[in-house]
Amino acid sequence: MCTLEKRGNLFILTLTGDTKKDQEHRLSPTLISSIRAALAEARSQAVNGSVLITQSQGKFFSNGFDLRHAQAVGAKSGSAEAAKAELVRMVDLFRGVVADLLSLPMPTIAAVTGHAAAAGLILAMSHDYVMMTSSRGVMYMSELDIGMTLPDYFTALIRGKIGSAAARRELVLRSAKVGAEAAVKMGIVDSAHDSAEEVVETAMRMADELGKRRWSGEAYAGIRKALYPEVCGLLGLKDSTVMPSKL
């Protein structure tokens, strides 16, 4: 599922899997719950100067919602409607992950070393910084290809994070499979690197630099929420005013 490691003020959330299937890191209710538990633990231990890095094992960062799980629910009940209802439930559950990341009282970095598709791409984009390997993996919003509209908070996050209308059109209205260099040009990714190891090393260096600033986590989260009012409104995240402690 996932693990959370603490190294000083650095939290490293790793999506894990023992099998090739597990290493697609499809967002099932179980994995969503596991991620939220890890983020809650990081929040509870946060201090000024904390930073979170999210990474993954295998060839995928995350392959989106676990459609096979939804299909299995439908097959068990003998109802296609039950499968659709389970997918809707996963969409609703995943709102909590995006809300947790956007309100987390510390800078966040996604070290993307494999494919990030659909909700998996939204997971990456919910971080403050995204770094990606050029050697493998694409960013891909697959909803159009599978005949599904985007959840409202997906669209709001994409609008808030990607400034170019042309880039948004390419991503969601063409379902383009975007490599790392193109993702940088489109404003989806902050930097592209030659290998997975370089992605992680760069993320670690950035985390160290950010952590040294020892910013107030409460102020950081408040400013972040104010930057993305549309998606935060849909997620029920309220603005907060934080004043200097030494006034």
TrEMBL record:
It comes from the Eukaryota. It holds the Pfam family ECH_1. InterPro entries: ClpP/crotonase-like_dom_sf (IPR029045), Enoyl-CoA_hydra/iso (IPR001753). PANTHER family: ENOYL-COA HYDRATASE-RELATED, ENOYL-COA HYDRATASE_ISOMERASE FAMILY PROTEIN. This is Uncharacterized protein. It comes from Rehmannia glutinosa (Chinese foxglove). The lineage of its organism: Eukaryota, Viridiplantae, Streptophyta, Embryophyta, Tracheophyta.
